[in-house]
Automatic annotation (TrEMBL):
Protein name per the record: DNA-binding protein
Highest taxon of source: Bacteria
Amino acid sequence: MKNYDFELIFKVPNVEDISTYSNLLFENGCDDVTINFGQLGFLALSFSREAIRANEAVKSAIKNVLQAIPNAKLIEASPDIVSISDIASILGYSSQYIRKLFETNLSYLPTPIHIGNPSIWHLSEILNWLKDIKKSNKQNISDSLFETASITREVNISSKF
């Protein structure tokens, strides 16, 4: 079994006592979650879940949350949508180094899903690109990160339809 770290963001019905969600989540198998109540009406749930595959970890977490809070709506799974700063942070590089990689390998760079300030990409595409241009190494990109980035992308794409 491997450990997979990921975050799920849900839109939830308003409840006067926010601790109600904590108890419901714990009672429904989410004893491996850190709950963030940042914005009213949303829960950001940071999981560190053991499973054989990332697919199993992420999908079981979604199932557990929906059992606990049936009216919750999945908004986003991460790590998936990332900026240059996010990529640098996840991989332990400086933003300048990532930007230089982008500029020197522009013709191979995956197409951003949003061009702006900042531009954003799917992390799974960036990880595969880094592997292809031979700029990744085992210390920075674990197999579990590859798996988690791929499944969170799939979840985000499928939840939009």
